[in-house]
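SAMPLE LOG
Freezer: B-3
Tube label: C17
Construct: single chain, 288 aa
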Amino acid sequence: MTVTIAGRTIGGTSPCYVVAEIGINHNGDMELAKRLINVAVAAGCDAVKFQKRTVDVVYTAAELAKARESPFGTTNGELKRALEFGKEQYQEIDTHCRKAGIVWFASPWDEASVDFLESFNVPCHKVASASLTDDNLLRHIRATKKPAIISTGMSTMAQIERAVEVLGTKDLIVLHSTSTYPASYDELNLKVIPILAQRFKVPIGYSGHETGIPSSVAAVALGAKMIERHLTMDRAMWGSDQAASLEPNGITRLVRDIRLVETALGDGKKRVFDREVPIMEKLRRVGR
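STRUCTURE (predicted):
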């Protein structure tokens, strides 16, 4: 089964679809968001992704009132609101991405955010791991008739099965993930990727939060059809996701290495290549 997003096929024999997750790494700065989009384009990524939340719906008043020091104030609410782009900012993102020639979409954390994103006619919706068990949100996303991508961090197989039951398998992509930031290599459990593929018969991908590149490339070798990695200009920047992100050089290397591995995987049919023939004629011994 394959899924089409903005004219690109995900799954089957199509090249891996690489998503640069900007998320909230823009720190509320539109110019920084545009720079990150430009980095993703230069690296050869297929799409960039953001997050969209209605702060007063996603978080309780008590949670927003909690003390939390940040560049934006002293409460959690001041931080969350500062990181949330509104209509005007997303219009800039939409315009910038169109000019740059890259697809954008986002993870809506509530139904109003789905409707907000639909006003930009995004090509798909991403379900964050934290939202996997929100059946009402899943149904609202499915009602848009757009492809859905679900991350499966901090979830049991039973919870993933429930989400797939609610969404259905049509136009669905499932991303294996571990929700620690940054994730340790002994937490990645990449062997789950082929298990998910066998279980759900939909394109399976990988959303990584580790600091390195090789494990995400290995996910492609294991069958991942979509790779999502957080992007930052500098892992030392302020922000909860920066340390689990790739810098410009890292995302560029990631795309390069994914394409090299895809080439190296070949088609699985054993053959003698033309360039092997002279070596074979020179070195091979045949014993009877």
